[in-house]
């Protein structure tokens, strides 16, 4: 049975095109999974790139954990991937507590997260900098290997 993987990312004329492109690259790695993207319809967005890659796209009305959790439950999502500066550890915890999904969060600024995996793909990323910023159960993936 295929897992349902949800990517939560936004793009607009002001934010996030790099985040979206990074998520589209990662989505290719989930060849045997059902891939779904959730994004807002912001001015100047690049949501068409998601559709052009033949992924399902959910348009969110807000950046609300409540709205996102409704979709996660409705669509039986197993894993959520966050690549969004507007989503913090409190948002991640609300989603985790409400739905029980596994969460992977992109991070390149050494911020606090509540996730199962934190991914900092920067070549010089230092896993030790996440001590105290992620829960004990979190797997830290850093550096050029990722």
Structural summary, described in words:
It is a single chain. Helix content is 26%, strand content 23%. A 7-stranded parallel sheet has the order 3-2-1-4-5-6-7. With 146 residues, it is of the alpha/beta class. Helix 3 packs parallel to helix 4. It is globular, with a radius of gyration of 14 Å. The mean pLDDT is 96. The protein contains 4 helices and 7 strands; from the N terminus they run E-H-E-H-E-H-E-H-E-E-E. Helix 2 links the parallel strand 2 and strand 3.
Overall pLDDT level: 96
Number of helices: 4
Shape: globular
Tell me the Rg in angstroms.
Answer: 14 Å
The share of residues in helices is: 25-40%
The overall strand count is 7
Structural class: alpha/beta
* Uncertain spans: none
Q: Termini separation (Å)?
A: 26 Å
The biggest sheet, with number of strands, parallel, antiparallel or mixed sense and barrel status, is: 7 strands, parallel
What strand order characterises the main sheet?
3-2-1-4-5-6-7
The portion of residues forming beta strands comes to 15-25%
